[in-house]
Structures are given as C-alpha cells and as structure tokens.
Amino acid sequence: MSKPLIDPKTHKDWVSPHSHAWYAQLARLTGKYSYSWNSTLTEPNGESIFTDEVSQMVRGKHVLDIGCGHGEFAMQWSPVAKQIVGIDITNDFVEAGNNANVSNVSFVQANTKNPLPFDAEQFDCAYNRRGPTSAYLDIKRVIRKGGRILALHPGDALNNELPGWFPHFFERHPEGTPIKDHIKERLDRGGCADAEIEAIRSIEYFHEPVDIIRMRCFGQKPSVFEMVLEESLPEMTRIFEKHATEKGLPATLERYIVRVQL
Fold it and tell me: Tens digits of per-residue pLDDT, 148-202?
C-alpha cells in the first residue's frame, strides 16, 4: 500500500505563501523573485501575451511597475521606456533593483494597501505582473487620463488537476471564480469598472517529480523541501509517471490578463 503524501504545511518552518513574511524570506533565501522549478509552457500563453502587450505599451512612456520584485522584468524595458518606477513591499528586492544602477529605472518600497506614494497623473501607464491587487484601489489617480493599465494574475483554474493527483500535498481549489471576483471587486472600487478581464489557458509541462515539489515549496526554507523529498519522493514519482506524457506532467496554466483604458 502506498504511503500517503505528506502535507508540507505541517512543517514547523512553513510560511504562508504570498504573505509579507513569505516575500521577505524569499528575498533572503534567493535575492530574487524567480520560479525555482523547470517546466515548458505551450504557446500562446498568458505570460507571453502579457509580455508582448507590455512591450508595446511602455515605449516612450513614464511607467509604473506594481509589485516589481527584484526588478528584472522592469529593467528589460529600459531601452524603450522613458522612465520606469517599480514598487514592492520587500525592501531587499527594492535594494537589489536599485543596486543594478539602470539610469532610467528606480525602485521604491511601498505597501499598496496604503495610498500610492506618487502625485496625481504622474505616470502614462502601469503594469502589474502577478503583483498585489490592492494597488487597484488607488491606481487610477496616478495614471494620466488616456493612459493604460495592464495586469497579469493567476487564474482560478491554475493547476486544477494537481490536488486530485497529489492528495494532501495540494489544497483543493475553491468552487467558482474567487480570484477573478476579487480582482474585479478591487478594480470596481478603484474606479476601473470598465476593465476587461480575459482568461487565457494553456498547458504547463513539469519536467520531473522534483519540479512539482519545488513549485509547492517555492519560497520556503530548504528544511521544508528536504522533508518532502525524504517522506514523499517515491510516491510523488509514482504519481508523476502515471500521469506524465513524453513532454512531462501536463497541468492547466491559466492566467487572467486585465486591460484598462482610462
């Protein structure tokens, strides 16, 4: 009889993902916000579509990056944007971005649950790449009339196969579309009720069983990852091989792309 998969949340070092403490820990552990697992995405997908649209929007503009992390995504637009300001709540990420010394890119520590630390109509446009939705409560104020906002968020169907395949290891998804509903509520409260929210689905192929573990333990201390390896890798491998194809283990990749024209 197979041994049940261990729940990584039972480890004493587990930190709730996407909490302030989790972001601070991720910054201390790796110095950057960058996924630690190996996978392949089918095209087209929400990530690439969003990146293409941002590349067109930022040309020659004063740009706000919401939830910038360590600034890698922002800095790639330096050659085409006039100026980019990134905000993030994690000081270590902000410092890492500013230490890169890109002349027209700067980073500011800010909590988007408070009013944004900028003047009215300071920016031509803004983007939010998997950053905080609380920024929508004040975003309209800091973007000039006629400006645009683009955003990318995880979809409600993201990895919806995994809780069934890996019981106890992943939590089951809530019914309905709570993520989309939350995004829309924040946009409505911020005066962006006309926003378009498009769901884009593709497939993410995880390359090997350890990539599933890396994804679930992303941002956690090594002790959590090591516990799962020791307790559950054989069963994870059995399940992975049962459902994998030649390309890897297929899981739904869903992203919401938000488009706002002010």
Answer: 999 999 999 999 999 999 999 999 999 999 999 999 999 999 999 999 999 999 9
Chain centre distance of CA 57: 20
Helix (H, G, I), strand (E, B) or coil at 152: strand
Amino acid at 241: E
18 half-sphere exposure, CB direction, 13 A CA radius: 7
Distance CA 30, CA 145 (A): 39
Residue 3 lies in a domain: no
Q: Whole-angstrom Cα distance, residue 1 to residue 164?
A: 18
Domain membership of residue 244 (yes or no) is yes
Name the domain count of the chain: 1
Q: Taking Cα atoms as reference points, which of 201, 92, 77 lies closest to residue 150?
A: 77
CATH number at residue 140: 3.40.50.150
In which domain, by residue range, is 55 found?
8-261
